């Protein structure tokens, strides 16, 4: 009866022995070994560059041309304002003369009344002229500002398109603005190597056609040069 007690234990040991043989035995000729996982191809590094948009904007010949056009308009506005001021100065001289006449005790009453009436009319005219002059300056100033803003937006769009075209042609993944600031007014780029700065190359490209044209001509003078 005691022998039956060891039968379950013997069966368990026999099962473990069979499993161990299965694990350690070499695979049969018909069994294919499992293949190792395929390695991923190496990821190429990102191609990154930076450009100073502010420098491009200031150095772009179109910016200078537009600024000269705006200066011409500003000079014209100032000329018109000065002409109106000259008229106001003439009226002011008349008012001063009429004031001296009214202060003369020898002036006859009827004449004094006529001088006073004329003086009041000229004074009202001067007030209206000065109001019109200021309105003229305000309206023209706003028009120039709106025109300048629209033209400057156009220049920025031209520069941006040129940068995008160059980035696509030269397979750049990212192009950052070196002149950009964070919300804390801190430069976005704290450091970058000169080898990644494409500003000079981009500026040369933007001004290339204009440089060829100006070799045979003269630069357009700035109407505000030499003026206060």
Automatic annotation (TrEMBL):
PROSITE patterns: IQ, PROKAR_LIPOPROTEIN. Residues 22-41, 207-228 are annotated as: Disordered. Residues 25-38 have a biased composition (Low complexity). It comes from the Bacteria. Keywords: Signal. The keyword Signal applies. GO terms for biological process: protein stabilization. One of its GO terms (cellular component) is cytosol. SMART domains: OmpH. Gene3D superfamilies: Skp domain. One of its GO terms (molecular function) is unfolded protein binding. Pfam families: OmpH (PF03938). Belongs to the Skp family. This is OmpH family outer membrane protein. It comes from Luteolibacter luteus. The lineage of its organism: Bacteria, Pseudomonadati, Verrucomicrobiota, Verrucomicrobiia, Verrucomicrobiales.
